Amino acid sequence: MRITVADVGKMKNDGERIAMVTVYDYSSALIAERAGVPLLLVGDSLGMVMLGHDTTLPVTLDDMIHHASAVMRASRQALVIADLPFLSYATIEDAVQSAQRLMQESGVQAVKLEGGACAVPQIRRLVEFGVPVMGHLGLTPQSQHQIGLRVQGRRAAEARKLLEDALALQEAGAFALVLEVVPAPLAKAVSERLDIPVIGIGAGVECDGQVQVWHDVLGLFEGRSPRHAKRFAEIGAAMEDAIRTYVNEVRSGTFPTDKQSAKMDEDELTAALT
Ligand code: KIV
Ligand code: NA
Prior knowledge:
Layout: H1 5-13, E1 18-22, H2 26-34, E2 39-42, H3 46-49, H4 61-74, E3 79-83, H5 92-106, E4 110-112, H6 120-128, E5 133-138, H7 144-147, H8 156-172, E6 176-180, H9 184-193, E7 198-201, E8 209-212, H10 214-218, H11 235-252, H12 266-273
Parallel strand pairs: 1-2, 1-8, 2-3, 3-4, 4-5, 5-6, 6-7, 7-8
3-methyl-2-oxobutanoic acid (KIV) binds at residues 22, 41, 43-45, 83, 178, 180, 201, 211, 213.
């Protein structure tokens, strides 16, 4: 049985911390499912980590559908949520059309969108018509040209606005909320005041759950990780080693061996060649 949005609400009530990770393709989703991740996010961070863009802004609805569909071919247990891309939910009509395509064409169970008060009418309409919506406040990467990539909510006025937005999203019917890069004490206060689960990324341990980007968790790239990330493995280095060994074995003629090759009766070959 697949995890539902009601189950996620129950996890908060039961004090069970919620683990979410992004995933963008079939074979990775199989791994995440085997590891028992309850919530999978097809994030528009795929624009950077899968497609090589500098930001999430160039990601299209078609990109999201392409990746979310691949994830859904692997997923059986998790609640799968996909991001609505930049400006694809600027009006209620846009939000409805975008969510319709994303859900019908990929099969995900919920959508996520960024923003506070400005997103309330869209969330209200989607929820009225049966679309589970996850909110996203704090460092919202789709607004980075306006708000930058710094910590959000450090000053009282900004923190108060964030709490008001969080309550407004809950009131509009969001089933959960992502808080990205906000001070841990503020994230704790928001988590305590909201009935819906608050999933943090760079928001301290007192949120109801955590979300991380697949590549950050696995150490899938070279160079500096974001401050909030912990590399639980060095898979990128392991992949590079494996590929380098493969290339070396091809060059030296040590791969393939008899073990990887089909055999043939000597007489049959002789008959064929004469
Ligand atoms: O796109 C994404 O990966 C996200 C998470 C970081 C919350 O929105
Ligand atoms: Na995102």
